[in-house]
Amino acid sequence: MRWQIILGILIVSLAMSACAVPDESAADGRLQVVATTGQIADAVQNIGGDVVNLTNLLGPGIDPHTYVATEGDLAVFQSADVIFYNGLHLEAQLERVLEQIGNNGDVTVRAVGEVIDPQALLGWEPEQGFPYDPHIWNDVLLWRQAVEVVRDTLIEADPGNSAVYSRNATAYLSELDALHTYIGAQVATIPSERRVLVTAHDAFGYFGQAYGFDVQAVQGISTEAEAGAADIQALANIIITQQVPAIFIESTISPRTIEAVQEAVRAGGHEVQLGGELFSDALGAPGSAAETYIGMMRHNIDTIVAALAATS
Ligand SMILES: [Zn+2]
User: What is the distance in A from the centroid of ligand 1 to the CA of 164?
Assistant: First the structure.
């Protein structure tokens, strides 16, 4: 019920803001682009460079599953030429508003995850209306397809700069190919029986499929539902049985969940290390190694290798 009220307020304020917000694109002259996640914003930055004016909605540490738009966000949406979001129910509290803006027709609204080939997607809960796992950036080759959607959408919206977008995209895509190769080489240094990735929520399904990890999490694919004591104990049992050496906290989730798992393992007479922090759903802070998508993916695999490959 609560979200319906919030949504009602959002839609009303959206209608009101349509006349109150000046059209920035007219003043700036550049394509006004909004991206929800840092991963998408980074793709836009690499492809659009200086010819677009980019706003990134969800900064470091912000959980996209639970984020609710502010009135200021709605004004930003309204003044955009193009809005990119992940879709597939990642931005659960934003998707209705974004769909509505898209249907109004003045703004190009693109859910990058919903344009790529669904045969490449992992399942989620189709009976709940969420057929696919939204964490597509955690497989670099799958994310490549989303980057191509960004390129094609920018060219469509701003054909005068198509040569810039094409050239930048080609360079960025080859960097992604190199990233994919790097991750594969790093994974190869972990003994195969140690390739078990335990995190707080189930964000690494695509990562596991692409790079050969058994992925286990306390919470499900979304963080909208809380983890229970039974989930924590079940995971602790898996860690003990499989002798998993390390488990990982996530930048967008309180470490308490994973610390509770560590405690439960200890109560079972075993010891598991905290392997460090992974960036599952948001990039790292500006100036950190994980401030870009490529930096985030390198940080994650380097952290995983350091914790799992070491012999103890
Ligand atoms: Zn997630």
Answer: 32
